[in-house]
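We store chain and fold; example below:
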Amino acid sequence: MLWRNRGFLRQMGSDPICLIFEKILKPIHVMEKKRYFCSMKNIITLAAAMLLALAPAAAKGLKGKVIYVNPGHGGWTVNDRPHATVNYEAMDTMSFFESKTCLWKGLELRDRLEAAGAKVIMSRTRNGFVSEGDKNATANDRFETYRDENGEQQLITLQKIACQVDSINPDYFIALHSNATGGEDGKTVNYLLYMYRGETGNDYAKGSIDRAKVAFPYVYDNPLTVWTVKETDRYVAGDLTWMGGTPPGEPNVLGYTGWLAVLKHRVPSFLVEGSFHSYQPERQRLMNRDYCRMEGIRHFRGINAWFGGKPEKHGYIAGTVKSADEIVDNPRFKYKEDTDDQWLPLNGATVYLLDSRNVRVRHYKVDNEWNGFFGFFYLKPGKYSLVYEVPGYETITEQVEVKKNETTYCKPRLHRK
């Protein structure tokens, strides 16, 4: 019998197969002496089971994985990063709030993750509201609700979020934000930043750096914005190094220190500053919910890549419609010189999507928020045409190809008639 060849076992050393012989086949030999019957089929079955138990767990995609999504901030207060836009004053809930745009990103990310089989936990699924009698209340105040009409708990404090994350111990944690330069608004700075708890090159929750490096190129893939740094200059940093100095206050109740309270837990994690909302053209883009949804999809691609998940079977189209002749002239729209952001976004443009048979299948009405953005979601891969129509401008048609698990980007510029 094979298991009687002790020299064979010694040659095998301590690898998994040797362990199988030691743990399974050798005991079978003992049983044989006691006249217990064991068929070769049983031996093979037991050996296979032992081999699977000894092999390292390989990533099999997102099915069954637990992902915690934290949309940054949460309400309509001065701490939720309100800013004036071209059409609205600061503190008007129709204007820019980081809390609102982060939620839009997070909800799309959640939907993509759940469609891939992951279990998603969110710190919140709604934005706060301005209470009756608040001095900052406007006629546009409203209470935004998503999937929580039955009273789903909305976590509030960052420490509560950190405690919940540490207790659940999910497979992945991501906090969604946008950034701002200090001091004067309207600076032409715009880049992508990943921050994890620890020092740059030394993540205190091991695995954070690796996850961030995998996700970075997927989220950076956004030619509709104007990045002020190259992709090769990747900002993936520890919060202690990036923020500098001594972290404020004492360790939290879990005993963890760091600058970013939401990361004070043991789970591999990071906070993503997806872009700079203090760069005014980018702020106008963030005013479009579908633009934020596209960022959520890019975050999904980065997470899906980390777990080795299957690529999505459908694709997307996203773009901006702008004038070919007119430069933006507005004090609330300071752009970086000699970039695409200098051209006037065409509010109210209509974009028609035609299939390969030249039949209109969808259309998109560009909003009036000075971004020119349009987007088409969940498209079958193949050839399409886009027709851009704006009163007073030429109508042009563009041929595009949609590929699975990719976004096709378009940046048409129309001449005035």
